[in-house]
Each structure stands twice: as structure tokens, then as C-alpha cells.
Here is the input.
Amino acid sequence: IVEDEPIALSDRSKEGGLLEGVQTGDRVRVLHDGLAESFPAQSGIYRLEKLGQGEQIPTQVLDSLRDLGWIN
Here is the structure.
């Protein structure tokens, strides 16, 4: 989530497994290939550094994702 907007990340690394152990709400820093102008925004990532454990996701973000069918 950047500025209350979610971003869907796809692993594009050669090794794979970048998203293993990462949970919704975790703070991460990524090396990516840009953001697709969709909702939610989407980006392919090549490197990921986990900065912190999961945090509360803003209600408005969850409501938007639920409305779009991304989550139940």
C-alpha cells in the first residue's frame, strides 16, 4: 500500500520465491519494473527486502479490494 492505494506484486526474479514469507500488510522495499495504471496498481519485482511485520491495512483499502473481488 502506497498512499492508501494497494499494489499487487508479481515475482519476476530468476530464482523465484521473493514473496515467500511475506504477509499482507508487511512493510517491504522492492526493486520493480514500474507500476501498471490499473486498480489495484500492479508491478513486477526483482528484489525484495522485508522492513517490518504486518500492519493494519486501512479500511478504505480493504473495502476497495473487496468491491473489486480481489478479497472476500
In short: Strands lie at 7-11, 27-32, 41-52. The CA atoms of residues 8 and 48 lie 14 Å apart. The chain has one helix and three strands.
